[in-house]
Amino acid sequence: MTSSTYTCQCGARLRYRQDMERRPGGRHANWVCGDCGLPVPGGVAQRLRHQHPS
Ligand SMILES: [Zn+2]
Fold first, then answer.
1. How many CA atoms lie within 13 A of 30 on its CB side?
2. Structure pTM?
């Protein structure tokens, strides 16, 4: 399985779901950068959510 990363505007590299923070909101939970709180694009967050450090 290939792993994807997302580089936030603050420079943080997000790779696992614990690198993001879950913000409950509306019908869909919003995922934000764990460092700065900027929202992570939905498609990216969905991929990262399934990645865990083994
Ligand atoms: Zn950030």
1. 10
2. 0.81
Residues 6+ apart with CB under 8 A from 33: 8, 10, 12, 14, 19, 20, 21, 39, 40
pLDDT tens-place string over residues 12-51: 999 999 999 999 877 777 899 999 999 999 999 999 999 9
CB 40 within 8 A of CB 31: yes
Ion ligand 1 residue ranges (Cβ < 5 Å): 8, 10, 12, 33, 35-36, 38
Percent helix, strand, coil in the chain (nearest 5)? 20, 25, 55
Which residue in 34, 31, 35 sits closest to 45, CA to CA?
31
